[in-house]
Design brief:
By secondary structure, the protein is mostly helical. The protein is about 45% helix and about 0% strand. The chain contains 9 helices and no strands. Helix 1 packs across helix 7, helix 2 (about 30-40) packs across helix 6 and helix 8 (about 175-185) crosses helix 9 (about 190-200).
Length: about 210
């Protein structure tokens, strides 16, 4: 008998999308690594708001970010950071050319500069915000301890544990289980009668 708390289930759900990324540590995740940089450092002047957009550059859409600008330059050339104006600007030592400009007081860190450069080098792949992506069933991950999982969620939990070189905790005793369940479902401890009834029930359906 095993129990997953609400918190662990939520954490596991959030981990589903990152399991593949864990298998490919070199892959840059646009949603987790690139979009936050663009949103916080670039979209004020180069985002969806046409009233504040500068130089005709829009970085929130791939087709706009990779299009040739009026200046003849192209901000993002997928696979070619050396030809991308964005890379040149974020690494420029000229204060008048360096992006983001000093007046924004939002300078890029060295790590952020490298992430943007590596992302463009890898193809500058954009991804839709998760809210606009239809959910799809994730493939069950392979696990070493095949006897431990009792269901599909267990497979994801165990895969993450094994990736971190950890193992599952020991199965909780029934008194702990009924207490956890009661707190998860209603935020209150079980009554003494409920505990005694659960402890006395040896049926596989007791839980």
């Amino acid at each position: 008998m095993r129990i997953c708390t609400i918190q662990s289930v939520l954490a596991t759900s959030l981990s589903f999308a990152t399991l593949a990324a864990a298998a490919e540590p070199s892959k840059i995740d646009f949603a987790r690594q690139i979009r936050p940089i663009l949103a916080s450092k670039c979209f004020t002047c180069h985002g969806p708001d046409s009233t504040s957009r500068e130089a005709g550059l829009r970085l929130d859409l791939s087709e706009k970010a990779t299009a040739e600008l009026d200046s003849g330059e192209t901000a993002i050339v997928p696979g070619k950071p050396e030809a991308s104006e964005l890379v040149r600007r974020i690494n420029s030592h000229d204060a008048d050319e360096r992006m983001p400009p000093q007046k924004t007081k939002k300078p890029l860190t060295a790590t952020e500069q490298q992430l943007l450069t590596d992302w463009i080098a890898s193809g500058a792949e954009y991804e839709l915000h998760w809210a606009f992506v239809a959910p799809s069933r994730a493939e069950l991950p392979e696990v070493k301890n095949k006897s431990w999982p009792l269901n599909e969620i267990d497979r994801f939990i165990l895969a993450r544990l094994e990736a971190e070189q950890l193992g599952p905790s020991a199965v909780a005793d029934k008194r702990t289980l009924i207490r956890r369940l009661s707190f998860d479902l209603r935020g209150l401890p079980p009554s003494i009668a409920e505990v005694e009834q659960f402890l006395a029930d040896d049926s596989p359906a007791a839980y």
